[in-house]
Design brief:
Elements (H helix, E strand, L loop, with lengths): L3 E6 L3 H18 E7 L3 E3 L18 E3 L8 E5 L2 E5 L4 E4 L4 E3 L2 E4 L3 E3 L7 H4 L6 H12 L4 E7 L9 H15 L6 E6 L9 H13 L3 E3 L4 E5 L4 E4 L4 E3 L2 E5 L2 E3 L1 H5 L23 E3 L7 H5 L19 E2 L8
Parallel strand pairs: 1-2, 1-9, 2-5, 9-19, 11-12, 11-17, 12-13, 19-20
Antiparallel strand pairs: 3-4, 6-7, 7-8, 10-18, 14-15, 15-16
Length: about 325
């Protein structure tokens, strides 16, 4: 059996786990695994949730990617520019190229706040280290008022994160003695506060016990930074003093430039199996807008534990966490 060249694009949670699982399962005799990462730094993105509340700064949530990978996995630090599907080659920005038999795309998602008018001028979020620090500073100066927390668009990374932030904010303003002067409203784009019905049924009473209002079917259309109002596609307009809104997510430029994405840059997959419609590709992370990714954090990496490589060279693995 000839050794397969497997290239993993992205050193986030998904890419790192998949690379380590592959070498553990297949060994060096069956496969040579290479991770290509733009920075060589592994960022644990869920940690950004705690930055606004005085948690460890963003740098504390970073580690060298090399230290998290098996010694059997090669690491290349550089920017992948294009995937040549016909030639089975990943082309790098510096001119280098890496051939593959199987390709794992674990590049995550790209934040696209500019798709909503007024977002950049008015909204806060914690989905990047810089934004988390800005939100920390805004909360430090907050003295009460109307706070809106929500999701601008679906899909997005780490579905529970906005609700987690809501409960953390409630605790934060209580500790500062500001709760009676603070009105908190959670905005959901669907007909309940969370996509999984059982979770929604559990969480909704907890919100209400804490005096947190919730507005369903609120899909953000535009923000007026001057009037401090948010308007939904459904026609609802709400005022705010502090707006915390998860920005729209889109597929990364690499996926778009390689002709692998749909109109929003997502890699099309089978809704039931997450099997990609391009080969020979494996997808992991938030590069795929599947119902699975929207409904619950799942790990399809277990597919590798039951055998060697999938029978089909085309499959997708969803590891829908806050990391790509």
């Amino acid at each position: 059996m000839s050794k397969r060249e497997i290239v993993v694009l992205g050193g986030g949670v998904g890419g790192t786990l998949v690379a380590n699982l592959l070498v553990r399962k297949l060994g060096r005799r069956q496969a040579h695994v290479t991770v290509i990462d733009r920075t060589g730094r592994h960022v644990y993105q869920p940690g950004w949730l705690y930055v606004p509340f005085g948690g460890p700064p963003p740098k504390r949530w970073e580690r060298p990617e090399r230290g998290l990978l098996s010694r059997k996995v090669d690491l290349v630090v550089g920017e992948a520019q294009r995937i040549d599907r016909a030639g089975h080659v990943v082309q790098m920005a510096d001119g280098a190229s890496y051939p593959y038999d199987d390709l794992v795309i674990a590049t995550g998602a790209h934040l696209a706040p500019d798709t909503i008018p007024g977002y950049a001028e008015a909204a806060h979020h914690f989905y990047s280290p810089e934004a988390a620090v800005r939100l920390r500073d805004a909360l430090a100066g907050f003295q009460g008022g109307k706070v809106l927390i929500g999701v601008a668009d679906i899909p997005y990374k780490c579905p529970p994160a906005p609700l987690e932030f809501t409960f953390l904010l409630d605790e934060y303003v209580r500790k500062r003695g500001l709760r009676e002067r603070t009105e908190i409203t959670y905005l959901s784009p669907i007909n309940r506060v969370f996509t999984i019905e059982s979770v929604s049924n559990f969480v909704t009473p907890l919100l209400e016990e804490r005096g947190i209002q919730h507005e369903e079917f609120f899909n953000t259309e535009s923000i007026d930074p001057v009037a401090k109002t948010v308007t939904s596609m459904e026609g609802t307009e709400l005022g705010y003093d502090l707006l915390v809104l998860v920005p729209p997510h889109r597929g990364v430029p690499l996926v778009v430039n390689s002709g692998l994405g749909d109109a929003q840059g997502w890699i099309p997959t089978d809704k039931q199996t997450l099997q990609t419609k391009a080969e020979p590709l494996l997808e992991t992370g938030t590069s795929v807008p599947s119902p699975m990714a929207a409904r619950r954090p799942t790990s399809k990496a277990r597919l590798w534990r039951t055998g060697s490589l999938p029978r089909s060279p085309v499959a997708a693995m969803d590891m829908s966490t806050t990391g790509g």
